[in-house]
Amino acid sequence: MKPLLNKTTKPFLIYVLIILVISIPVYYWVVDTIWQGELDGHNKTIAEKTAYEFNHLKLSDQELNKSIELWNHIQPETNIEEIPTNNLKRDLYTTIEKPKTFSDNPEIERYRCLKTVVYINNKPFLFTIQTNIEESHETIAIIATTTAFFFIIIVLGLLFLNRRLSATIWKPFRNTLEKLKNFNLNNQSNIEFEKTDTTEFEELHLSLNKLIEKNISVYKTQKEFTENASHELQTPLAIIKHKLDLLLQNEDITEKQYQIVEDINKALTRSSRINKNLLLLAKIDNSQFDNSEKIKLDILVRQSIELLEEHFQQKNISVKSYILPEIYVNGNLSLTEVLINNLLINAIRHTSKDASISIELTEKTFTVSNSGTRELDKDFLFKRFSRGFGDNNGSGLGLAIIKEICNFQNWTINYTFENYNHIFTIIL
Questions:
Q1: So what's the pLDDT on residue 256?
Q2: For a disulfide at 376, which of 208, 213, 308, 388, Cβ 3.0-4.6 Å?
Q3: Residues 208 and 193: beta-carbon distance below 8 Å
Q4: What is the CA radius of gyration of the chain?
Q5: What is the pLDDT of residue 156?
């Protein structure tokens, strides 16, 4: 994960880099065009000034020819040639490349050329002048170096501003985020957010305050309902069960009546169990448990195995256990006990007689596996009141409770079916 400022800075830097790279040929074209325009003006001025100076000398035709010959000899890039008539309707500007013949290293260079007609002693002369243009690759190199320099300045400036903004402008947001991380509904108290002059942060604080107040109100209502349901429902269920027990002890009851009362008693027992499980799920959903206790998990697992020893013996189930010692986890002690018991009871209930159950506890996982005939539907396995094993004796909430406890304690439960074995693995 990356900070928000980094996500906004990176696209901006990429955009700036693309613009600067594109600007290099644009700069070159603009500079070259301006340069050629200046050279064209320079060449035109030289042609006009040369014609003016020759006319100012007022030479004879013979002296003029000797002077032009001498001029052409000492000015290698300039040529004056007499023409019979002026056939050049307008000045001709061109760019050519040629080697420097007068240099020891005859490298290719660019020249800006001008052909124009001037009048000396009232006679038309074709005036040709060539002026060297600076090497193009040198110009590009200078422009590219300058562009790269300014890009580095921009990057360094943005990184510096990014750190300063992150430390100052985003400080209220970080404080708000930290308070939200530490917020706990069990405290049932609002959060006092830091005052800021940033409109967006103030709007965020107002929205969060409203949301927190609403959640606290809903939490209190649900908690009161859970507590009331726990007392109000359990009491009449206990009274009914007690009356049924008395009725079953009556000597005058017939066999048929006894069977009816026994069925009612079983249904009532199941209803009581469902009620307790639903209340437990409600308490977990409302975060009414502390999950910061340090638990010695290996002791809990061994205690649960000993507690359920009678159930193992009733079905003649052999238990294969591999439990590492000194396994500590953070969570809620009572919920962890419920989780282990539910997982083991689920394995016992759905394991045939004379079979075996495997229990394994390591530093990172807790695994319970039992034999089976077919794979269960993973989409409905941990849903409430779903019976993936086709058993009607359970409440349909055992695996749902296990899933909710794992979520509450930031654990993960996985189910696989391998070699005709149902394998439940909890990643601690």
A1: 85
A2: 388
A3: yes
A4: 47
A5: 86
For residues 208 and 199, what is the distance between their CA atoms, to the nearest angstrom? 14
Mean pLDDT of the chain: 83
Q: Which two tokens stand for residue 334?
A: 């009572």
Contact (Cβ atoms closer than 8 angstroms) between residue 428 and residue 411: yes
123-133: strand order across its sheet: 78-82, 123-133, 108-120, 92-99
Of 339 and 372, the one with more pLDDT: 339
CA angle 365, 371, 372 (to 5 degrees): 115
Q: Under 8 Å CB-to-CB from 194, ≥6 apart: which residues?
A: 172, 175, 176
Stretch 248-271: mean pLDDT: 82
Q: Is the pLDDT of residue 192 over 70?
A: yes
- Look at the pTM and tell me if it is higher than 0.85: no
pLDDT value of residue 340: 93
Cα–Cα distance, 81 to 83 (Å, whole number)? 6
Give the separation between CA 262 and CA 245, rounded to whole angstroms: 9
Distance CA 405, CA 331 (A): 9
What strands lie across the sheet with 356-361, from one edge to the other?
318-323, 356-361, 365-371, 421-427, 412-418
pLDDT at 351 over 70: yes
Whether the Cβ atoms of residue 369 and residue 424 lie closer than 8 Å to each other: yes
**Distances from the Cα of 394 to the Cαs of 141, 266, 389, 397, in angstroms?**
82, 11, 10, 8
Higher pLDDT pick, 57 / 139: 57
